[in-house]
Amino acid sequence: MKPTLVILAAGMASRYGSQKQTQSFGPSGETIMDYSIYDAIKAGFDKVIFIIREDFAENFKAIFEPKLAGKIKTDYVYQQLSSFVGNRTIPAERTKPWGTAHAVLCCKGKINEPFAVINADDYYGTDSFVKAYDFLVNQCNEQTYSIIGYELKKTLSDFGSVSRGVCAVDANHNLTDINERTKIFRNEKGVITYEDETGLHEVSEDALVSMNFLCFAPGYIDFCESQFGEFLDKNMNNPKSEFFMPIVTGEFMKSGKGIVKVVPTTAQWFGVTYKEDAPHVQASINALVARGVYPANLWA
Predict the structure, then answer these.
(1) C-alpha distance from residue 64 to each of 71, 107, 171, 188, 194 (Å)
(2) 95 class by beta-carbon count within 10 Å (0-12 exposed, 13-18 middle, 19+ buried)
(3) What is the C-alpha separation between 224 and 100, in angstroms, rounded?
(4) For residue 59, which of 105, 151, 168, 171 sits 20 to 30 Å off, Cα-Cα?
(5) One-character DSSP codes across the chain
C-alpha cells in the first residue's frame, strides 16, 4: 500500500492577509502546493488529502481537480471548530482553527496507510519527498514515526519572526526533545534568536527544526484524539491556543509508545509567512525552473 500525502490548507493566514494557499507563484499559475504534489508524485505517493475549510471547498476543488485528474488520487477533509470537541462549549471569541494536530485528527476514518503531512504554504524541496517516501515505505510503523529535519538557517523569513519546532536528537537521530519556538528571527547582529516569556535566547544556525513535514502510521491519528481532550480542558478559553503537531509528536516520544526519527534534509525551504515573502518565493521558483528542476508548466 503506497503512502498518502496530507496537505494542511485550512489555516486563516492571519499574518499574510489573503488566501495564500491558492495564490499563484509559478510561471504557469502554479501554487506552492502544486510543486509539493509534483515532487510527491515523482517520489511515489499516489494519493493526496487536502485538509481545508468547507467555506472555500468549491473554489479550492475548481482549482486543483482539473489539473490533478489522472495524475494522483484526491480526497478532502474539512477542519471544523466543532470536530472532536465533544459536549464542550466553544467560546465565541474562538475563530481560528484548533491547530495542525487537530487538522490531522479530522482525517480519522480517511487514512489506513502510512502518511506524510505538510503545510500548503511551504516549499519543501525534492529531496524531502524522496526521503519521506523512503521512510514511509521502509521504516514507518506504529512504533516509529519521523520528522523531516531542516537546518534552521534555511528556514527563516527576512520580514518577521517564524515558528519552528526545534529538535534535539541522539546519536541515532532519534528525537529526544522538541520545543515549539513561536518567535524565531535573526537579530541586528545576524544571530538567530528566539523570544519566549523569559526573554531572548540564541539558537544554533544548524539546529534541526520541524517544518511540519512529518511521517506517521495511521495510529498517530488515534494518539492525537487521546491528547486533544486534555488540550481542550487546559486551553478551551484561550482563543490563541493551538494543538501543534510537533508537540503531540513529542508527547508520543515521551510517552514511551515509540521513537521519532529526525531525518535530515539539505533542502532549502521557502514559504509565505508574510506578504513581503511573495516576491522571494516567486523568484525562487523561477530560478528552479530555469535550472530545469521543474518544467515551466507542471501539469502540461
Answers:
(1) 11, 19, 42, 41, 37
(2) exposed
(3) 10
(4) 105
(5) ---EEEEE-----TTT-S-GGG---STTS--HHHHHHHHHHHHT--EEEEEE-GGGHHHHHHHHHHHHTTTSEEEEEE--TTTT-TTPPPPTT--S---HHHHHHTTTTT--S-EEEEETTEE--HHHHHHHHHHHHHT-BTTEEEEEEEEGGGS--TTS-EEEEEEEE-TTSBEEEEEEEEEEEE-TTS-EEEEETTEEEE--TT-EEEEEEEEE-THHHHHHHHHHHHHHHHHTT-TT----HHHHHHHHHHTTS-EEEEEE--PPPEE-SSGGGHHHHHHHHHHHHHTTSS-SSTT-
Contact in structure between 113 and 2 (CB atoms under 8 Å) = yes
Residue 120's nearest CA partner among 30, 46, 183 is 30
Measured distance CA(49)–CA(147) in Å, rounded = 19
Over residues 116-160, the pLDDT tens digits come to 999 999 999 999 999 999 999 999 999 999 999 999 999 998 888
**Terminal Cα-to-Cα distance of the chain (whole angstroms):** 28
Q: What is the pTM assigned to this prediction?
A: 0.91
How far apart are the C-alpha atoms of 85 and 229, rounded to whole Å? 7
What the chain holds in terms of domains, given with CATH numbers, is: 4-146+208-244+263-290 (3.90.550.10)
Per residue in 219-273, pLDDT (tens digit) is: 999 999 999 999 999 999 998 899 989 889 989 999 999 999 999 999 999 988 8
Closest CA to 48 of 56, 40, 60: 40
